[in-house]
Amino acid sequence: xxxxxxxxxxxxxxxxxxxxxxxxxxxxxxxxxxxxxxxxxxxxxxxxxxxxxxxxxxxxxxxxxxxxxxxxxxxxxxxxxxxxxxxxxxxxxxxxxxxxxxxxxxxxxxxxxxxxxxxxxxxxxxxxxxxxxxxxxxxxxxxxxxxxxxxxxxxxxxxxxxxxxxxxxxxxxxxxxxxxxxxxxxxxxxxxxxxxxxxxxxxxxxxxxxxxxxxxxxxxxxxxxxxxxxxxxxxxxxxxxxxxxxxxxxxxxxxxxxxxxxxxxxxxxxxxxxxxxxxxxxxxxxxxxxxxxxxxxxxxxxxxxxxxxxxxxxxxxxxxxxxxxxxxxxxxxxxxxxxxxxxxxxxxxxxxxxxxxxxxxxxxxxxxxxxxxxxxxxxxxxxxxxxxxxxxxxxxxxxxxxxxxxxxxxxxxxxxxxxxxxxxxxxxxxxxxxxxxxxxxxxxxxxxxxxxxxxxxxxxxxxxxxxxxxxxxxxxxxxxxxxxxxxxxxxxxxxxxxxxxxxxxxxxxxxxxxxxxxxxxxxxxxxxxxxxxxxxxxxxxxxxxxxxxxxxxxxxxxxxxxxxxxxxxxxxxxxxxxxxxxxxxxxxx
Length: 589
Known about the structure:
mainly alpha; single chain; 64% helix
């Protein structure tokens, strides 16, 4: 069983890297293409025509460059408009078409939370989608934001990449051009292909409303065909189109409350594999894009290597603990190491279709990215296995991370790494030919300080007031883990949940909404300020004392900085939650 699980995890990693490299090269071409340029193939030319029409209709001057402040203004205004739009659609839901189930309007606190969630690429859901949101709300408000919020994160990264590629420049690109290109050339084509593939595999895509059926007990009691009181309903809707972009855009918000555990969202082994690939594909490919655009593919590979090492290390920990099973059962003499891949280990909260290996892989992939979708319930993982997805979020969502946001977070850690190395040898640190000085480190400090601040302050508040503790359904260390996980997820724009916590309350909707807002925008703005500063700098030639940032020594230092930062910040809180719970399960009788 262990060898079969390891084989599945290995195949996934190999396929992911193999697909990421050509996709990364393609995205570098997309962002480097001059406005108005033509391509040789008709498909690209048709997309270029669509791009030019969008600029014309929106009256966007695609040739105009923006400084970092103007770029940031456009980013914020665009996202604010998206939040207001999503909020309004939810509140007006009963008055709008596309509501076959006649669902009521969403409460103000839940609508606020959802609006911030989808605009910030978090997609945290305190509600069950199929019973709360109409088809129109799911498509016009939520699915559209899956595209727009993902593209907005990619724009910030592209601005930062240009800052390294340029010198003595007062601009970092055009926000609207980067946004349109992210959608037209990358997100939309990939989502279309994935959605059609998922439909062919059995994922639902329909506007026909819920499906009525007779439960087994109704058939056995021989109800009359005219009696409809015994009929049950299966919710359906335009699912596949939302699932494709939720995975590719590292959004994660599902059509159904149980997300990709639901067979209508995730029909079988092949759809499960494709959706897991989609979660990490663009974040991994952007490392190659980074290397191509800055003119040093080795630096892009170094960042990808650091991400992959941390990912595989924590995946092995999660899979190892889940495969070992529940220690409380072990003390009872129950053999959990079955030879059947889908029945061995800790199967609580998991789909028998996927088993332990694929459940652990999804949990690690979805929290390594800022995705948040699930194909099993993280609340049912063994404590130390559940610690892994929590820690991946607490590291700052930089191990692949969200589309755009993950890589710019890792680049910030790279700047801190060269700064620390520079202090060790008494030299001004440099990265990709740019001196890293006081201003850059101040901006980098803001990026790495805001998320843990929101996690720890939010958790402290929630465990201190009755509005926070009354929502906890599990006492003791596990209940604390649920609260810690919720704020880790919201503050790092992930969106997954430990469950077992009743979060659809005014307290949690507003508290987590504020955490999501800070976790997105108080990081993106310092990154853009950092881009503006770096773009204005002159490139300097590497000297004898310049630290190489494209070798294994730097990769090792970068991994150490990322892990130490997360460890120093969250070890005390993790000790109070999953570590204590694991010890209790192992030693208490």
